[in-house]
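Slide 14.
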Amino acid sequence: MSFKYPLPPCLRTERINEPTFRRWLTRKAFAHAKRDRRRGIQGATFGRHKEAIYRAVVEAKGRDYYTGKRLDWHRVSRWDNVEASRKKGEYKKKFWNLPTADHDFSKPKRPVFRLCSWRLNDSKNDQTIMEFLELAAAVRAHLTGR
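Slide 15: predicted structure.
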């Protein structure tokens, strides 16, 4: 059976199967499209977002776009709420390298996403990459005296 968004070749050596990848892609696209429509972003559709997120995975070769590091594809769909509430931050740290999609708003006419780790996306939040780098530089300068 052929799918429009098959498991990318770059993920064939990772510990993720095609159904799990398709489920991850669908959930990411749905969540981003829903959030973008609430934000009033024109043209925020599930289909466009799904295509853009898939493109981000392929272009990044399944790695974090910003750091180049491998992502923990084997952790997709493995979050355990009971374990998380019991172990708190200790548990969440195990998922820092979970793959996720980050908005790149530099191209307003079409959705652009960057594949990255949950940790990076959580830290960067709604900042542009330049705003994030300026913040990181300020933290480094303050804490190291440089």
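Speaker note: The chain has a mean pLDDT of 92.
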